[in-house]
Amino acid sequence: MDDHDQTKKPFRLRSQRWFDDPQDPGMTSLYIERQLNFGMTRAELQSGRPMIGIAQTGSDISPCNRHHLALAERVKAGIRDAGGVPLEFPVHPIQETLKRPTASLDRNLQYLSLVEILHGYPIDGVVLTTGCDKTTPAMLMGAATMNIPAVALPGGPMLDGWWHGRLAGSGTIVWEARKKLAAGEIDYEGFIEMVAASSTSVGHCSTMGTALSMNSLAEAVGMTLTGSAAIPGPYRQRAQMAYMTGVRAVEMVKANLRPSDVMTKKAFENAVMVASAIGASSNCPIHMVAIARHMGVEHDLSDWQRMGAAVPLLVDCQPAGRFLGEAFYRAGGVPAVMKELLDAGILHGDVMTVTGKTVAENLEGLGAPDREVIRSFGKPMKEHAGFIVLNGNLFDSAVMKISVIDKAFRDRFLSENPDVFEGKVAVFEGPEDYHARIEDPSLGIDDRTVLVVRNCGAVGYPGAAEVVNMQPPAALIKQGIMALPTMGDGRQSGTSGSPSILNVTPEAAVGGGLALLKHGDPIRIDLKTRRVDVLIPAAELEARRAAWKAPDLVHKTPWEEIYRSMVGQLGTGGCLEPATLFLNILETRGES
Ligand code: FES
Ligand code: MG
Fold first, then answer.
1. pLDDT for 4
2. What is the Rg, in whole angstroms, of the alpha carbon atoms belonging to the chain?
3. Is 133 touching ligand 1 by the criterion CB < 6 Å?
4. Judging by beta carbons within 10 Å of its beta carbon (0-12, 13-18, 19+), is residue 395 exposed, middle or buried?
5. H or E element, residue 201
6. φ, ψ for residue 319 (rounded to 5)?
7. By CB count within 10 A, which of 19, 132, 146, 466 is most buried?
8. Which residues surround ligand 2, an ion (CB under 5 A)?
9. What is the pTM of this model?
10. Is the CB of 85 inside a 6 Å radius of any atom of ligand 1?
11. Which residues form the signal peptide (predicted)?
12. CB-CB neighbours of 59 under 10 Å
């Protein structure tokens, strides 16, 4: 690792080019002058101490990350004690549950806002505050593009929620409550009360949804301190971790330890393994591929199929299991899972992490986990629990989360041949169309129907809507049919336990095969060959393709138009394609 060998070449901090450049006193004076007006002193600015940015993702409209406003004080204390100078700054906010039309539209905007700040301001290293779903990938993507010393600080999950004496996990309880409402078991008041029961304290979603999954993968890929991902938001250990993360950021600048030293191909492979073992959100493949592309690392969906599909599920967390973030943390959290995988010989132990040590070194001397929550590799919750990556005559790629397929679903749909399902499609033009028509008896939806939703991809519903986990019509739910196979070019919430075929690439709005489906078309899903095919003659499919016209997209904001003009598909990370060409900006553009 001579890249960050300090003895090799003493380096001048980039912040000194702003604050201490005797060759250009005019600019230096301007840079210093306004930084003084809130009490900063010239001595601090010219001390030659690392300036450490704290990328603040919390605000009143981002409740999942709002706790970072308080945690930042502990980060600053750590930075000061380690000999650095903290500079907290806001980035474009994202709140998963509040932003219309989709929070994922803003992942790339938060990424851009971070890159622009890190590039344009005197920052030597950065603490990335992560939490709510898209904030974690956005922060890691920005750190990857800039490649300055960076360490992530997750905000942690909320405390466990309870409803009528049992655990109420964020998001997951919503899907259950909707079914109870549809079945007439609860009314509107009861519905809101049930959903609200999951919101207990500061912190992000308590289930193994996208937030806890992506923070766990930030740790797995080496970008957080060991054990940081799962500490609940209100715990004292969370604030202590904030302090230690601040300390570490300064040390990383002194050691010149950069994202490119940490987020290597092997590190992404480790993240794939951990994703399967924790039962991670179906949004994780999209985000990890995006981070890797911004890092310039070759990593795509084929790695998820090749390495992750056969890995067992070890963690008993909702939606694939029973528990929530608090139990996961107390049972040992991400380090316990990584140790299990390392001992099984499927994790790379020799990759560098932000701690300055390797994965194997970080896990040395770790005690045994609570087996109620984190199972052993030899006795997992489920075998072969990763994602499978599908293709066929309708699309190039889609993912399916195997860990959430329960026995009842398998038995009902896959009994004749455990891997093949044949049925007819009911096609919806988007979530609004689904809600308007799902109860229409003339659609003839029965227990052999595949529900398909289209126009929900990165371009179609800008950002890609989380809508594929459609529930059956109320009449079927009342008969006890709680789920149908679903497929779509959108995404689904990581808190959903629905075994959907998701993230279909290319999407309908750019002419992907879903655009060509007609209501009632026969379809075959074969999990063994990992193919989905519409069973109509190839000539008919081609005729429909020739007749297809691109939809008129209505841009509601300038950003929607800019985003749509340059976003790629979900299968390749949903990145702003031109941005993926900017690698290691400071060095490749002569500004290091
Ligand atoms: Fe923010 Fe789930 S809504 S973490
Ligand atoms: Mg979500």
1. 46
2. 24
3. yes
4. buried
5. none
6. -90, -10
7. 132
8. 96, 133, 466, 493
9. 0.96
10. no
11. none
12. 16
